[in-house]
Design a protein that fits this description.
Layout (H helix, E strand, L loop, with lengths): L19 H6 L4 H18 L1 H4 L5 H18 L6 E3 L5 E3 L6 H14 L3 E4 L6 E4 L10 H17 L1
The structure holds zinc ion.
The site of zinc ion (ZN) has 8 residues, from loops.
């Protein structure tokens, strides 16, 4: 924790990346981030079989299971401490030790709400979609790139 937030000292705030304070304190070493991002990519790649295959083979099932384990490992350090708010009410907080743990938790929320991980047919990056049976591209940009390529190909013929 101190490694990622060295300036926070012993006064670690409840970190929320949506708030400016998070970015004032966050300083995850880039090597750690790249290694962690690779793990997250592997996890998402493995989980993408759930959306793309109607029948999952035993080998694909193992890859999905490994992806799930990697995702769970990345979010394992996340905790939900109970806090008391200004009005004396209880509030469930979230304590994330790294940016990757936040991403892993976001993917967890997406998967638990019925979305699926897909691999973009154009850029081959993982993304999450609700309409996973019909969605093929991560963004309008990728979809447009393919459309323009196909249009040019037809024009040449
Ligand atoms: Zn893409």
């Amino acid at each position: 924790m101190e490694r990622y937030f060295p300036k926070a000292g012993n006064k670690l705030p409840l970190l929320d990346p949506a708030k400016e304070n998070f970015w004032k304190f966050y300083a995850e070493p880039i090597d750690d981030f790249i290694a962690g991002a690779s793990l997250l990519w592997e996890a998402l790649d493995g989980l993408s079989y759930l959306a793309t295959e109607d029948k999952v083979s035993e080998a694909q099932g193992r890859v999905i299971y490994e992806g799930l384990n990697e995702l769970n490992d990345l979010k394992a350090p996340v905790s939900t401490p109970l806090r008391i708010d200004d009005d004396g009410g209880f509030v469930k907080g979230h304590h994330f030790p790294s940016l990757l743990s936040i991403y892993a938790s976001m993917v967890e929320d997406d998967l638990a709400s019925g979305r699926r991980v897909l691999i973009c047919k154009e850029c081959e990056r993982p993304f999450v979609a609700a309409n996973y049976k019909t969605t093929m591209y991560c963004s309008r940009r990728c979809r447009n790139t393919v459309s323009v390529r196909e249009w040019r190909k037809k024009k040449k013929e």
